[in-house]
Amino acid sequence: MSTDNLQIRLASRPQRWVREDNFRQVREAIPEPSEGQVLVKVRYLSLDPYMRGRMDDAKSYAAKVELGDVMVGGTVGEVAESRDERFQRGDRVVGMLGWQQYGVCDARELRKIDVSRVPETVYLGTVGMPGVTAWYGLTHIGEPKPGETVLVSAASGAVGSVVGQLAKIKGCRAVGIAGGPAKCGYVVEELGFDACVDYKAGRLEQDLAEATPDGVDVYYDNVGGPILDAALDRLNPFARIPLCGLISGYNGQPMAIHNVRSLLINRVKLQGFIVTEHPDVWPQALRQLGEWVAQGRIKYRETITEGLENAPQAFIGLLKGENFGKQLIKVA
Amino acid sequence: MSTDNLQIRLASRPQRWVREDNFRQVREAIPEPSEGQVLVKVRYLSLDPYMRGRMDDAKSYAAKVELGDVMVGGTVGEVAESRDERFQRGDRVVGMLGWQQYGVCDARELRKIDVSRVPETVYLGTVGMPGVTAWYGLTHIGEPKPGETVLVSAASGAVGSVVGQLAKIKGCRAVGIAGGPAKCGYVVEELGFDACVDYKAGRLEQDLAEATPDGVDVYYDNVGGPILDAALDRLNPFARIPLCGLISGYNGQPMAIHNVRSLLINRVKLQGFIVTEHPDVWPQALRQLGEWVAQGRIKYRETITEGLENAPQAFIGLLKGENFGKQLIKVA
User: Are A9 and A24 in contact (CB under 8 A)?
Assistant: First the structure.
């Protein structure tokens, strides 16, 4: 039996912070597709904060990863063998093959991608789930109007970077929050945000007030915790909060917010969402995002780590905010 | 100059809890209406939690009461003198005349009431602002579907009692939260809720879990704080939270909520609102509520305190949850 398929499986559930020994590397045989299935050779694996939630035993919106199972994850790859007429060997595809070198799935779970105008990796970021997450939350929940101020946390990340650039396209003032001067500089100078607040500088409240002189109409929240609290303090009446992620909670830190009063006195709408539950918006979102990326109107940055065996370490770094832009693993 | 108009004015802003010396009693001349105005002799004054917010200097959704001004408040009364053709002496009216025996206002700020089918006091409660608050929050934000579970805090109060009864009319399971066995008994036996949890019994989480075996689809929040936190823990996916009041915050206690994660993982919509900003719904809401009260389908309870001079003490009791049902002051 061949053992050519390196996989990374969940070995144990994390206590607070994720550690490398929560994962186990395994070598298995390359699987065979059944009728209607496709075998994909993974080229890039996407690492995303939601994966942290799947490692827990807790009730969540998505099925947890069982102990011993291959970690879930979005991938781009190449069709190695197809038993479905819609795909043939060599096609570039996106799918959820997980943390492994080869995977099999039903043909309907794959989507062909056009790599002539947009590089393949971007289908895991700006023209993939993170991009659609930004697009859906901003346009369907945030509903920003020209001239309004849109604030977004994790602004240099895969979702936040798109939120701010979409806000600029819509004629808004875009303000980011990010960790450290390098990320903040990138957000303003490369991505074109109007301002970016460095939450690590220790003056979050004051800096946020200076960066949002007209208050905040949309706060796109990717992190929760104290940054959410600080943002609540800047809200204008009738502000909207698309609630997308709570990175600061994924590691077990306290997630209390104190400024609940702002939600009432400003008649705020706060809405949690999961983009995979809104499949109807994906085609329009992907088409717009793809065009804007091809035209250079939406920019992106990637951190690419070589080798699937390094995925656990890169994932731990992602949860600590060590990556810069979209975190990917080059698998092959 | 006559001094026949007893008024209660704001003497100082409260530090945390409201005290009687935050108010001052004053006797003034009965005012004269100008052209287009009406002089109203107040019969009943409504006491409501929102008044606590008006006593602070803080930014809020409504103008604060200035030091030395008459306290704001909803009233029913009798037209004593009219300089507008729409009203004549003796008409029963609702308006915002405040904590005083006589007041003048523009005719367009008054609404005539029909006291033949519904007692006049009810226009300050179930068929007034509290009732419309319940109606708007439940129907427009909560959007309950038959068979769903609607949970409401301050369930024996002016708003909460209507929320639960409307939920029953809509075919939902109605569960209340109230303080003490007397209020809980009333909520179940008189108002017809399916269950009521006594938050003072010290087993909030367990009792709430037992009372909501199928989880919670709508949590109508009147109090915030630890009760909001406990309710967040019972939410079903796609739950809705009309955020109506934060009594537990009106006295300066910590208002932190810890269970923010539930908002994300359950894709919750939380929406703060102020019913006076939705004048379009008032006629429909008042018509429905008035009919249901007249038919006995919606029941109510009132605590009526005699004498305007006792309003400060009654208001302090309201903030501590000492009243039972709608708190009113019989002024004349």
Answer: yes
- Same domain as A146, residue A105: no
State the ipTM, two decimals. Answer: 0.83
Q: Is the pLDDT of residue A108 over 70?
A: yes
Is B54 part of the contact surface with chain A (CB cutoff 8 Å)?
no
Cross-chain residue pair B228–A260, CB shorter than 8 Å: yes
Most A-contacting residue of B260, B263, B267 (CB-CB within 10 A), to test interface = B260
Percentage of chain B with pLDDT > 90?
83
Model pLDDT, residue B61: 66
Tell me the CATH number at B155.
3.40.50.720
Same domain, B115 and B151: no
User: Cβ of A258 and B263 within 8 Å?
Assistant: no
Which of B256, B263, B272 has its CB closest to that of A256? B256
CA distance A39 to A215: 51
Alpha helices in B48-157 (DSSP H): 50-54, 129-136
Q: pTM value?
A: 0.87
Residue A76 is part of a domain; what is its CATH number? Answer: 3.90.180.10
Tell me: pLDDT of A63 over 60. yes
Residue A254, chain B, CB below 8 Å: the answer is yes
The pLDDT of B311-325, averaged and rounded, is: 91
Burial label, A157 (beta-carbon count in 10 A; 0-12, 13-18, 19+): buried
Mean pLDDT for chain B overall: 93
Q: For residue B73, what are the domain limits?
A: 5-125+300-330
What ranges in chain A are assigned the alpha helix state H?
50-54, 129-136, 160-169, 181-189, 204-211, 225-232, 247-250, 260-265, 282-294, 311-319
Q: Could you tell me if B257 lies within 8 Å of chain A, comparing CB atoms?
A: yes
